[in-house]
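Continuing the series of single-chain predictions for the mutant panel. This is the parent chain; the variants come on the following pages.
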Amino acid sequence: MRTRPSLPSRLSGASLIALTGALLLGCEGEGPEVATTRAALSAPPTLSSRRLSVEGTRLFDELGREVVLRGVNVGNRAKMPPYLPFDLRADESVAAAADDFFTRVAALGADGVRLTFAWEAYEPTRGGYDEGYLARYRLLLDAAHAHGLSVIVDFHQDAFASAFCGDGFPLWALGPVSHGAAHYDCGFPMWAIPALLPFTSVSAAFDRLWNNADGLQDSMEVAWRRVAAALAGHPAVAAFEVMNEPAPGSVAVDTFDGVILPAFTARMGRAIQAAAGATVPVLWDARINTAAPSSALRPPPLPGAVFAPHYYEAMATLGFPFVIEGAIKGDLTAQFAARERWNMPVLVGEFGVPNHNWAKAAYLDFVLDTLDSLRGHAMMWDVSASATQWNGESFSALNPDRTEQPWVPSFVRAYPRAVAGTIAAFSWDASARRFTLDVTAATDGVTEVYLPRRHLGSSPRISVVGAIASQWIATRELLLVVASPGASYRVSVSP
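Parent structure:
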């Protein structure tokens, strides 16, 4: 059983019982216990680290609160030199740009980011590591932490390498596979197709990885150990992700899903945990863009594993302005069925549609409604701020000048960020601008609920039934709630 640490704002058990009794008796005015509790709720609890832990199907923070990750990928621009998610303005330092950029990410209501890490940038020559790149990556972590964001370090690749209109693996990893120079001009879906076919140069490169040709997996493990050791102590780092969108190469997909991928994930995951700590969560992705897990897919034998599939509904991703509700709900429900089947958290590592799809707002509304019904973690693709687009893809919530895209309000919604207790259900009605949260088995701590002012205003109507006290902090867009241990309560919010 998990032992949840007490918080600085904790009341003694006797005080909680007395206070609950006073509230039930309907005492006129606000007693001293309530006033004391409200004072303790003047700010959210301070976290020394955003490192998460896995217990069964749920994620917890260092204070023992159940966490819901609703964030964004950062991002597309970081796949290419200079491997930053934004363009630098004249005389702007990386640190200053990162602070401005993550201010805007936090304004989207995100509590986390999946941050692109490029192996090709870190180890451009075999055994030669660019510590300057790692230092710039740390500046991004610093800014994310300063703005309250938990970071998943994402070892990103697409189509294996930049020589194939992709990114991720260093060119030296290609060995004898024929290739040209780096380029990013293929467009979607052309850049992805070679990774889906068994007899292409991209698949030959993946075959080298799965066969550990020239010790390629060995080198990847060494790199992961170095990265995990270097970044594990950073307070922003919540978890690590083994590799984005693995492709099977020429291997039969059932063999890949059931044997090769679980073994590879376990090997890299153990290397990460050996360097960063045995309990650090390790995310793993299914075969490229799998909408629903195949029946052959098996989880890695790895404590702390988190299944992190991606979701791109085909018609919407190709630009057709359709919200095919049945397909979306069915696919996401199938992905989250793995949560109970494997007793493992599920986090949708990527979802989204291109900015030119004029149904994007409606699409995001329905996807997020479905994720709410599933109590699902998810990271939207993507947030970058650059005039340069990788393969012409435009998904970003920000324009090159770092202003927001017009569809952004559909992504921003109320949700529980950290709950001292068990989340039973939550939902956001975008049209009515109403939010509800049901919590059971409350624990001794402070619950944080994100309530966006852009939808609810500075003085929303808040009802908290069954808790001891609550406090709305308009400047932080946070509702804080304290309840008696073991209690159940409901939060209802409207403008």
